[in-house]
Design a protein that fits this description.
It contains five helices and eight strands, in the order αααββααββββββ. By secondary structure, it is of the alpha+beta class. The longest helix is centred in the N-terminal third of the chain and has 22 residues.
Length: about 180
């Protein structure tokens, strides 16, 4: 029964994400817009034009957006039980890109390829120092200076600004697993 509910939830998330994409919802990012500069950085990132992204990267973004409002659970690795940040990223990459990512946010960071902020594309991963510990939080960049993540506060997966607010001040680095 649980497997059937999970399958229905996964298909529902994909259907909702696809419907939003087709409807041109304002929550979906522009696929070719470069991110705004992060705190402490100059305007080069805003001036650069980001290259087009792959269909896999688009799938990652739509799948991540389909998980918005999913409950948080420390150590959570599936949407039915709740997700933490690394569990959400691992789940999305497994389902949308057929890639198995390792355990914690720090483990995921170690295996990814570094990305210059000026070249950040939807589907890339963004890492933060949120507990006075490097790479203690991870999210998926969705474009337009925003990312999707599973924060412990407020208890649900959500999209936030990468360029302003609490997370902007704690941004560490971007990495990718996509071509």
């Amino acid at each position: 029964m649980r497997r059937k509910a999970s399958s229905i939830r996964t298909r529902s998330g994909l259907a909702i994400g696809s419907a939003l994409a087709l409807a041109g919802c304002a929550m979906l990012p522009s696929w070719t817009q470069a991110p705004a500069p992060l705190a402490g950085q100059r305007g080069a990132a805003a001036e650069a034009e980001a290259p087009a992204i792959s269909a896999t990267a688009q799938d990652v973004v739509v799948f991540a957006l389909g998980l918005v409002e999913t409950g948080y659970r420390f150590g959570g690795k599936n949407p039915d039980a709740g997700l933490d940040c690394s569990g959400m990223v691992s789940y999305v990459f497994d389902k949308a890109a057929n890639l198995k990512l390792p355990g914690s946010a720090a483990d995921i960071a170690r295996k990814g390829r570094p990305v210059d902020v000026a070249q950040l594309k939807p589907g890339d991963l963004v890492f933060f120092n949120t507990r006075h510990k490097p790479y203690s939080h991870v999210g998926i960049y969705i474009g337009d200076g925003r990312f999707v993540h599973a924060p412990s506060s407020a208890g649900k997966v959500r999209a936030e600004s990468l360029t302003s607010g609490w997370f902007a001040a704690r941004f560490e680095e971007a990495r990718t697993y996509l071509d």
